[in-house]
């Protein structure tokens, strides 16, 4: 398969997505190590502790969002036929994002209100600037495909999501929200996941899953429905008034949008020409299964709320874990393609070059995937059972998987023509 499916002549230099992916993997490993430390607290239902919140944001802001920004910088020329509008600004937002995450995550356990505010403001600036860059890029596109609409929606919520974060950061020492704190947290989480992460996943997966699975010509109506439902649901949840009048319909629309996305992804997997599923796509499939499990658990967990904190935590583990595995699986597809395109592609016809899949060890990728899936599942079980021992042991397995994947991807990045 040619690397042209993820790169074009107008794609950015390797450095831009490369710095994002390197930082994202670093946050993935650090978050997993932090997860080992906080796993017993999760099993006890103590999700509100500052060090637990810090670990959660290592995954959401440091792993998932940095990876998404890197992927968008690389794939916009392919997806909408437009390179990122201001490449220099993408480097600036990367620096702001990494600095903000480090400040914010470091300040939470130490109780530094000033650090929390500075970190939140820096991250918000990164999100807002990237949203402007993304919107400016999309404005120049000639056609408005499903991917275009998904990313356009995500650009809006990239600007909205940090507002919730700043309010919650201020609330840590001001207590302005009172009893509404946890409701605001729930809105913040689901606007970010549904309005940004899932919309980007739908839009990018619409192009990448058919390419990686060789499943072209699949009906994409479910994907279009997913975009509309996710956008509508996130928009309702973003309205900070109305209580359940806006929250309940918003949650239902998000759930329906996620279901539509899962139906679309299943269609790609079922109609693939390539019957063998490689380690990366197996890991992505595990992530989709996790999202399906989160969809099933959501009504029970969200209706029980704080009355059953273990169930609430298990739901969020399924949700964030599902996204994490989906992203982790794509690293085994995207990074080899980029390295091949930039370093080996120019040599085609001049000398023998390796194939894309020969740039990494499928066995190592399978081991990493197995550890990630087993650790994640075990952690969910440990939390449901309220067992700190099971939760910590499972978190150790998960952390081992992140380290194996980080080493494997680093080795891919080091591959050069002999």
Question: Would you write up a description of this structure?
Answer:
There is one protein chain. The chain is mainly alpha-helical and 418 residues long. 79% of the residues lie in helices and 0% in strands. The chain contains twelve helices and no strands. The protein has helices at residues 15-43, 50-79, 87-110, 113-139, 146-174, 181-213, 221-238, 244-270, 279-304, 309-344, 362-385, 388-413. The chain is globular and about 65 Å long. The model has no long low-confidence stretch (mean pLDDT 90).
Distance between the termini: 22 Å
Uncertain runs:
none
Share of residues in helices = over 70%
Instruction: Determine Rg (CA atoms, Å).
Output: 20 Å
User: Topology as H/E string?
Assistant: HHHHHHHHHHHH
Distinct helical segment count: 12
Question: In percent, how much strand structure appears in the residues?
Answer: under 5%
Oligomer: single chain
**What would the principal axes of the Cα set say about the shape?**
globular
Average pLDDT taken over every residue: 90
The helix-and-strand class reads: mainly alpha
Q: What can be said about the biggest beta sheet?
A: none
- The total count of strands amounts to 0
Summed up:
With 418 residues, this protein is mainly alpha-helical.
């Amino acid at each position: 398969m040619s690397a042209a499916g993820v790169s074009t002549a107008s794609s950015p230099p390797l450095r831009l997505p490369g710095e994002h992916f390197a930082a994202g993997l670093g946050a993935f490993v650090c978050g997993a190590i932090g997860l080992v430390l906080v796993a017993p607290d999760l099993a006890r239902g103590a999700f509100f502790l500052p060090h637990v919140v810090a670990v959660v944001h290592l995954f959401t802001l440091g792993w998932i969002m940095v990876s998404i920004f890197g992927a968008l910088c690389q794939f916009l020329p392919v997806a909408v036929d437009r390179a990122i509008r201001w490449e220099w600004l993408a480097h600036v937002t990367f620096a702001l994002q990494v600095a903000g995450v480090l400040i914010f995550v470091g300040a939470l356990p130490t109780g530094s209100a000033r650090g929390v505010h500075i970190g939140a403001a820096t991250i918000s600036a990164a999100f807002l600037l990237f949203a402007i860059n993304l919107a400016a890029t999309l404005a120049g596109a000639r056609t408005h495909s499903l991917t275009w609409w998904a990313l356009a929606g995500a650009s809006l919520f990239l600007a909205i999501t940090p507002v919730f974060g700043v309010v919650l950061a201020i609330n840590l020492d001001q207590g302005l929200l009172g009893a509404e704190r946890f409701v605001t947290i729930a809105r913040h989480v689901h606007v970010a996941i549904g309005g940004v992460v899932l919309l980007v996943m739908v839009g990018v997966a619409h192009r990448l899953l058919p390419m990686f699975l060789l499943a072209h010509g699949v009906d994409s109506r479910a994907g279009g429905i997913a975009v509309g439902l996710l956008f509508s649901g996130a928009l309702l949840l973003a309205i900070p008034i109305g209580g359940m009048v806006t929250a309940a319909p918003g949650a239902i629309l998000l759930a329906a949008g996620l279901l539509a996305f899962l139906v679309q992804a299943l269609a790609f997997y079922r109609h693939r020409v390539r019957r063998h599923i490689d380690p990366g796509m197996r890991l992505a499939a595990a992530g989709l299964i996790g999202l399906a499990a989160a969809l099933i658990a959501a009504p029970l967990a969200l209706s029980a709320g704080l009355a059953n904190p273990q169930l609430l935590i298990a739901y969020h583990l399924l949700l964030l874990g599902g996204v994490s595995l989906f992203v982790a699986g794509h690293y085994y597809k995207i990074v080899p393609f980029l390295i091949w395109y930039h370093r080996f592609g120019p040599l085609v016809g001049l000398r023998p070059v390796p194939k894309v899949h020969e740039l990494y060890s499928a066995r190592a990728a399978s081991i990493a995937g197995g550890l990630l899936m087993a650790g994640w599942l075990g952690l969910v079980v440990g939390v449901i059972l309220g067992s700190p021992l099971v939760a910590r042991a499972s978190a150790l397995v998960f952390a081992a998987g992140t380290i194996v994947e980080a080493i494997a991807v680093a080795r891919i990045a080091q591959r050069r023509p002999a």
